[in-house]
Amino acid sequence: MTDVAQHSMADNTGFEPGKLDRNAPFYVAGHRGLVGSAIWRNLESAGFSNLLGRTSSELDLKDRPAVFEYFAETTPRYVVLAAAKVGGILANNTYPVDFLTENLQIQINVLDAAREQGVERLLFLGSSCIYPKFAEQPISEDSLLTGHLEPTNDAYAIAKIAGIMHIQAVRRQDGLPWISAMPTSLYGPGDNFSPEGSHVLPGLIRRYDEAAQQGLSTVTNWGTGSPRREFLHVDDMAAACLHLLEHYDGPQQVNVGTGSDLTIKELAELVADAVGYNGSVEWDASKPDGTPQKLLDVSKLAATGWTAQIPFEDGIRDTVSWYRSHLTSLRG
Q1: Which of 73, 253, 266, 277 shows its CA 20 to 30 Å from the CA of 295?
Q2: pLDDT score of 87
Q3: pLDDT tens column, 295-309
Q4: Strand pairing of 228-229 and 262-263?
Q5: pTM of the entire structure?
Q6: What ranges do the domains of the chain cover?
Q7: What single-letter DSSP state applies at residue 10?
Q8: How many whole angstroms separate alpha carbon 204 and alpha carbon 193?
Q9: Per-residue confidence (pLDDT) for residue 197, from 0 to 100
């Protein structure tokens, strides 16, 4: 572990996590996105009656004065920071400045405004891309800052690492019991299925479904199909967020995943089966594969008493069904 990581863990908030007040104002930043909308649904089902959310057109989180004004007006007791500029390999590799700048702006504005209001509990959501490209598998939380990042999304990763450090700094300086969670690759209802901005799973669903509907004989996928990836249904992620807020307090980020993975080729076969595509598949090895493997060590999360519940095949079928029923209103 690096000196920075070691120092950042030397704090003591003196806070004992427990059940959150279901009537307290609870702000979900990014409540219309893939993760945020799932968190909103989960909190509603858990009985939270004072949820706060603003769309990006109603509140631009890159607008610092507007964010501070919103926090002063609503004075949330709890916050989940799920808002972020996200995308797949193509988007991250093409627009690194945008991914770095916009995510830093969102994070700094929300976290500083929450700090000014003394928000009691805050959960910052990052990404498994914060870990080194060649981290030992499965990747433990201690792997942070121990090696070089994957070049195709290093700008986004640096922004998320800054967010983790921001949380740790607030804990040390102010004693606020804020926490961070690092999810593995997420999927599910509300995902981005655009050809340019999607992650691998929604991208495959769109590609294979269109091929099936058009009767195409061949589908071409990026890369070699050999990288291994772990996937977590967004509703499982939402449940994990509430669980962590009520059961975990510590400076170190917590990995959130399933603890199992599969190759992109195996993933493509599951998607083809789910959408009913029976044609052939080609792999364009001239396109980047990204990180060879990203499997998270979820033992820290399991020790708090939580494990994923949604079987992957069921989750894919659920996502395909959602995609087909929302074709006219998809993002991108």
Answers
A1: 277
A2: 76
A3: 999 999 999 999 999
A4: antiparallel
A5: 0.91
A6: 3-189+230-259+294-309
A7: -
A8: 9
A9: 65
